[in-house]
Amino acid sequence: MESHELVRRTIQGANHTGITPVYGWVKANMSAAITEAFGSVIAFEDHYRFDMSHIFGGPYAYDTPELNALRDAGAEITPEILLDLPLRDANQEQDYTDIKAELEIYRKQRGRFCYQQTPGIFEALNDVFGIENHLCHMAAEPELLAAVYQKQCAWNLQYIQNCIDLGIDMVHISDDWGAQNSLLFSPQAWREMIYPHHAAMVGLAHDNGVPASLHSDGNIASVLDGITDIGFDLIHPYQESAGLDYQVYLRKYQDKFAILGGLCIQTALGFGRTAELEGEIRRVFGLLQSKRWICCTTHFVQNHCSLEELTGAYDLVLELSGKK
After folding, report:
1. What pLDDT, in 10s, does the model give residues 38-84?
2. Dihedral sign for Cα atoms in the order 256, 260, 264, 265
3. Which residues form the domain of 78?
4. What whole-number distance in Å separates Cα of residue 116 and Cα of residue 58?
5. What backbone phi and psi angles, to 5 degrees, belong to 278?
6. What's the whole-model pTM score?
7. Within a 10 A sphere around the Cβ of 147, how many other Cβ atoms?
8. Which of 91, 146, 247, 315 has the fewest other C-beta atoms within 10 Å?
């Protein structure tokens, strides 16, 4: 069975092979060390039989030089300003060149399950407003901000459709909502301002026969029921170190969505505690193996992780996955 089929069945809850799919966010901070040892990051991923690829690329919604010119002129970027700014055309073919190239390498040549990084609603505008200003706008100008969100969502829907047409296997919507112990805003604000747009994006993916995943760091427990109502097929990372409980998942949510995660970069990987790391990997496999789970890092592996520790972790992951 090719990797893309193994992952697809796992997400659906129909993987009866006894094999756990494997992935990891290793490239951002570890590429130099990995390349020195393996020749390339792709060679590392091939060695550890990664089943997925996280595809980046595509256009940005707003014109960055235009925003920077406004800032340089002393303007604060507000909802009013954004409502007057045109969005970039999401249909420029040249903006999708990188996506096409990565699909050629990872999907066509390697048979991996390729999921496309897609802007959410809240996170997509944090770079524009700054997160503190964004939260202030949410509290003080909800109606204006709702109009900005609607504009962003319409752009996102066209972007998503274009990526699906290129052949991606899953729409991966990145939208960080969680702090370490709670949401960054109230569950009511989430339900009123963010939920409808995610429902539209996930609905578009499903209308095209493509699953949709959510990346949100932190504690999102208070909106997990809403996330299942939206219809997300997978959540990354379902962050145990931020208070999300695997036992709650197994009891309440495993028939609703799959998990991509389990190898925590906040508490386990990268701290030089070899025995504890091994125990943690074995514990998570004991809980989640043969469930709707793909073993992956909870975020990008940090640069304080040694290559020796990274390879040791993935040697064990590969052994426990049932692939050997």
Report:
1. 999 999 999 999 999 999 999 999 999 999 999 999 999 999 999 99
2. negative
3. 3-321
4. 10
5. -60, -45
6. 0.96
7. 15
8. 247
Alpha carbon distance 180, 61 (integer Å): 29
Angstrom distances, CA of residue 256 to CA of 13, 34, 206, 233, 235:
9, 36, 15, 7, 10
CB 102 within 8 A of CB 57: yes
Q: Give the count of domains, the chain.
A: 1
Distance CA 312, CA 86 (A): 49
Question: Which of helix, strand or coil describes residue 117?
Answer: strand
Cis-peptide, bond into residue 196, ω within 30° of zero: no
On whether the CB atoms of residues 187 and 117 are closer than 8 A, the answer is no
Closest to 12 in 3D by CA, of 233, 181, 200? 233
CA atoms of 221 and 227, how far apart (whole Å): 10
**Secondary-structure breakdown of the chain: helix, strand, coil percentages, each rounded to the nearest 5:** 55, 10, 35
Give the number of other Cβ atoms within 10 Å of residue 139's Cβ: 11
Q: What's the pLDDT score for residue 324? A: 78
Which CATH number covers residue 92?
3.20.20.210
The CA-atom distances, in angstroms, between 306 and each of 31, 183, 237 are 12, 32, 22
Over residues 75-129, the pLDDT tens digits come to 999 999 999 999 999 999 999 999 999 999 999 999 999 999 999 999 999 989 9
CA 21 to chain centre: 16
Query: 212 — phi, psi (to 5°)?
Result: -130, 135
Residue 63, SS3? coil
Q: What are the tens digits of pLDDT across the range 213-231?
A: 999 999 999 999 999 999 9
Token pair listed for 79: 């909802």
